[in-house]
Specification:
alpha+beta, 3-stranded mixed β-sheet, two-stranded antiparallel sheet, 6 helices
Length: 141
């Protein structure tokens, strides 16, 4: 299974925020949409990602309130990304090794979607359940 297969099921909509927005804006948007991260975009260009962990770090090291700190100041700039033709097993290994829970998928330099570790686990579970069903059918026949 490939990342494009997950995106075909999940969809390609990605919640984003501008780098000039405040951390309070980011928190409000994540809460409103019940999500754990936002892709930071300057126009059509992805420039970073902001996650719940980034929010916690901003609070822990706060010299200002979240409404005075920009997303750009706290976002992750070196974003780990995936490609549509990337294998799900490789993706799971990458996300585990790099300790990321959200992976933007880039196709031809453009944001194609966002995969969470939950999406990867769900897809892997479905794949294994299907293989188990086929093996059980084969054994019983």
């Amino acid at each position: 299974m490939l990342l494009k297969d997950i995106l075909a099921t999940k969809g390609t909509d990605v919640l984003s925020i501008e780098p000039t927005a405040t951390m309070a804006d980011a928190v409000d948007k994540m809460v409103a949409h019940r999500c754990g991260s936002l892709v930071v975009c300057n126009g059509e260009t992805m420039v970073g990602i902001i996650s719940e962990r980034d929010v916690l770090r901003a609070i822990a090291g706060a010299s200002d309130t979240l409404d005075k700190v920009t997303v750009e100041a706290r976002m992750t700039k070196d974003v780990i990304t995936g490609a549509p033709d990337q294998n799900i097993n490789d993706t799971m290994g990458l996300m585990t090794k790099k300790h990321v829970r959200h992976l933007p998928v880039i196709n031809d330099g453009k944001l194609a979607g966002l995969i969470s570790i939950g999406d990867v686990v769900k897809a892997q579970h479905q794949k294994l359940a299907m293989e188990n069903h086929l093996l059980m059918s084969y054994i019983q026949s």
